[in-house]
Amino acid sequence: MCNCIICNKSNDGIIVYGRKICIECEKKIINTDLNTDFYLFYNKCIRKKLVKGYVKNTL
Ligand SMILES: [Zn+2]
Q1: What is the pLDDT of residue 30?
Q2: How far apart are CA 56 and CA 5, in angstroms?
Q3: What φ, ψ does residue 14 adopt, rounded to 5°?
Q4: Number of CB atoms found within 10 A of residue 11's CB
Q5: How far is the CA of 23 from the centre of ligand 1 (A)?
Q6: Ligand 1 mean position to 15 CA, how many Å?
Q7: 9 Cα–ligand 1 center, Å
Q8: How far is the CA of 58 from the centre of ligand 1 (A)?
Q9: How far apart are the CA of 3 and the centre of ligand 1, in A?
Q10: Per-residue pLDDT at 22
Q11: CA of 30 to the centre of ligand 1 (A)
């Protein structure tokens, strides 16, 4: 139910804006240069999920 939004595994993690990001992915993000593909992917991921959630909550 509460899987990481990036790797979709149920590892321990943090909740960001109501979405879970596991420790493994958090580490990757922290160690990732802002211009890398992973960061862009992460950003896209978050935005997609947030927008979806936002739309759902609004309706
Ligand atoms: Zn993850």
Answers
A1: 77
A2: 17
A3: -110, 155
A4: 14
A5: 7
A6: 11
A7: 6
A8: 27
A9: 8
A10: 92
A11: 13
Structural domain spans, the chain: 13-58
**Contacts for 50 with CB less than 8 Å, ≥ 6 apart:** 17, 19
d(CA 21, CA 49): 12
Q: Which residue has the tokens 């580490």?
A: 27
Tokens of 27: 């580490």
Q: Each residue's pLDDT tens digit in the chain (59 positions)?
A: 589 988 999 989 988 778 888 999 888 877 777 777 777 777 787 777 666 655 555 54
State residue 8's pLDDT score.
92
Backbone angles phi, psi at 50, to 5 degrees: -65, -45
Q: Does the global pTM surpass 0.70?
A: no
